[in-house]
Write a structure and sequence with these properties.
It is a single chain. The chain is α+β, with helices and mostly antiparallel strands. It has four domains: 61-182, Trypsin-like serine proteases (Thrombin, subunit H, Beta Barrel), CATH 2.40.10; 192-293, Thrombin, subunit H; 300-394, Pdz3 Domain (Roll); 420-509, PDZ domain (Pdz3 Domain). Helix content is 21%, strand content 33%. The protein contains ten helices and 29 strands. The protein has a six-stranded antiparallel beta barrel with strand order 1-4-5-8-7-6. It has a six-stranded antiparallel beta barrel with strand order 10-11-12-15-14-13. Strands 24, 25, 26, 27, 28 and 29 form a six-stranded antiparallel β-sheet that branches.
Length: 512
Amino acid sequence: MLALKRTALFLCVLIFLSVVYVGSESLRTKNQVIYDSAVAATASPLIEPNIFVNLSKKLIPSVVNISTFSTVKGQFFSGGPDDLWRRFFEDMFRQHGRRGDDNGEDEKSPPKGGPGHQGVPRAMSLGTGFIIDSSGLILTNNHVVGDAEEIKISFTESYDEKPTDGEVVGRDPELDVALIKVRSKREMTPAVLGDSDSLEVGEYVMAIGNPFGQGHSVTHGIISAKGRLAPDFPLANYIQTDAPINPGNSGGPLVNLKGEVIGINNAIEQRAQGIGFAIPISLVKKIIPQLKTKGTVSRGYIGILVNELSPDIAGKIGVSKDVKAPFVTHVYPGEPADKAGLQTYDVVVEFAGKQIHSSSELIAAVTSVPIDEPVPIKILRSGKEQNLTIKPGRRPDSQQIGSKKPEKNEKKPARIETGLTLEELTPEIARELGVSEKLNGVVVSSISFGSPADKAGLSRGDIIVEVDRKPIKDIDGFYSVVKAKKSYLLRVRRGDFRGKEGFSVVVLDLKD
């Protein structure tokens, strides 16, 4: 009997232990599932293992190093120590016979056409660009190539690679963007241009460039902010990032985790670390067609001055204090805004279908619309909403300001193709260029890439004062002489960086 009881007790204990084991195993399995689910939920679907390794392999073949050479004209640095923003390109200099920086690099013999060629002191600068078309088109910053006399492109860091000559196709100083063309049998790998408008603060990004001449280098960070105002460029807002970027990164791409370019590295905040700025690629994509075909960019202009609307001013002009929008402080007579009926104190709340909350948004909207095409504009006048139609003109810096308008019966001379865009030398332009208002001539406002004018060495801002020793007073006078496909002798007023006046003589060859 006692043995039977012991056997029963043993069986009960065994059953109990089995239940506990099964329950604990079930609980362990359940907890593991919960843990695994939590890990999966917190892991970002975008951050896969080696994501930046894969991005580097994808993008580096599209990035190029840019070396430029220019005659040394004075101080290496255009800005002083108080400049809060600094371009990445300015301090990568070496001059033959002396050290242009103090980073400890050994001096190298200057290449032919490089620093010190033919006894002329020249500076070498380093920057970055990226391929956007398999034909050899490269995007970079305008300040990288703006003053360059010679441009060399390197696709790799191989010692046996011979740099390829680069030519400027188009420049946009206002956006600080330039388009370069290289001719090479090398297979080009274009980068994909993304959508910077859809960026979110906090997104991971990667910057690629040539920092301090170190060749293809990558860094990563996040989008720190959007819509940062640029101190010297009111037509757009910057992307701010903490991805480490340094001198030499100018013109390099800022890319998202999809491998798309969403910005062009452009400037840094000198007082801090981890504060860099890039030009939004969505703005750049809008001007690329003009850079390709015209070499310059024409932007919309309506002829008004605006200020931000404060609650105090809003109350004085009959507008709700909650309204956030710019108001008109001046309307230039005869300009598109005047013709459309805009008045001082009008509050602009919408332009071309886009809501406007600030003067920077209005500027961006106006400069992005086509020239001479009517667009709607919505305003508040004394608190009442009105809808007007306005036809933007061309911004004054690229249109023929003050040019003489011929009478209806006046016969204009035929204008042969030279590759030049000319402006009348008005008193206003003369003051801007720092020349005497008594000087006669015509101003070169832009030059078509590869044209006879380009080959002649003419530059934007040159003043043509004589053609074949005949004084030129206006544009019609220029084309009254330049009217056949032959060679012409041009005398050109060309100032240097100190504002000192000088004259050059060039040959404009229009022969086939």
